[in-house]
Amino acid sequence: METALFIALIIISFVMIALVILQGRTAGLQSRDTSSIYRTKRGLEKTMHQTTIILAVVFLLLALITSLPFSIFSSTAPAPTGLLSLLGLF
Questions:
Q1: Average pLDDT over residues 42-57
Q2: How far is residue 25's CA from residue 1's CA, in Å, rounded to a whole number?
Q3: Contact 12, 58 (CB under 8 A)
Q4: Tell me, what's the pLDDT at 44?
């Protein structure tokens, strides 16, 4: 069960990275329009923004659950200490 939580954390982190990169494509120096300071997010942009927030909250909760010092699950195996030991490569 703990392994499933770690795998979920990894998957959520990659999805969040992709969403943040896709959202930042018109930010910063690439945007030449200085006439409007704020514009409303609509459509896909709004959905991506809301999905990023939801995934960030889920990531935070999963990270807190997996970092608990006691084992909620009845596993006697020690928790993996890194990605390589989680995958069984180390």
A1: 90
A2: 37
A3: yes
A4: 85
